[in-house]
Amino acid sequence: MNLILASQSPRRRELLSLIQPDFEVCASSAEEIIPDGLQPSEAVMYLARIKAEQVAKTHADSVVIGADTVVVLDGQIMGKPKDHADCVRMISALSGREHEVLTGVAIVVNGRTESFYQRTTVRFLPLTEEEIQWYASLDEPYDKAGAYGIQGYGGLLVEGICGDYFNVMGLPIASLRRRLRQIAG
Fold first, then answer.
1. pLDDT confidence of 36, banded at 50, 70, 90?
2. Which of 103, 164, 182, 185 is the most exposed place for a label (fewest CB within 10 A)?
3. Which is the catalytic residue, given 36, 61, 68, 83?
4. What does DSSP assign to residue 8?
């Protein structure tokens, strides 16, 4: 099975290599705009699907995987921080609270798309202003949904999780492996 990851994310590449070491990376150029009215779970599956289907158009003989991860607090999607102030706002909002991390995955094979999502609950420690400013001063949070990376220094902000750790990193590998096995027969 020729496998293509429709993502430039180094975390997703690393995680997919745990399932299958040989795959190609072909980043999607799909415009990531969420249609109005979608719930967060629907939004991540929609974004994963448009990424995978855009790459599959030129790789019809391959299995193409697209993924998208969001942080959800109080029912609202938190994207990537725009700047330092936005990062501080996001980390402050997460401080001492529980939120959800949703990753949508789409698998395109033989012109058919199968989508699913995984949900993980994350609880942040109550953070001091000094801790928030310290984390916001790093480069790490600025390319990540919800302004933190659990696999890096952001892990120091986390009190605990319930669910798939790798989902929080951006790819629920156990669920994905099972789906790929079903597809491959």
1. very high
2. 185
3. 68
4. -
Determine the straight-line distance between the first and last CA of the chain, rounded to whole angstroms.
11
**DSSP state letter for 139:** S
What is the DSSP secondary-structure string of 21-37?
Answer: S--EE--------PPTT
Place of tokens 């798939």: 164
Contact 150, 158 (CB under 8 A): yes
Residue whose pair of structure tokens reads 């058919």 in the numeric block? 112
In percent, how much of the chain has pLDDT > 90? 91
Concerning whether 36 is annotated as a catalytic residue, the answer is no
Q: What is the pLDDT of residues 47-96, one digit of tens each?
A: 999 999 999 999 989 999 999 999 999 999 998 999 999 999 999 999 99
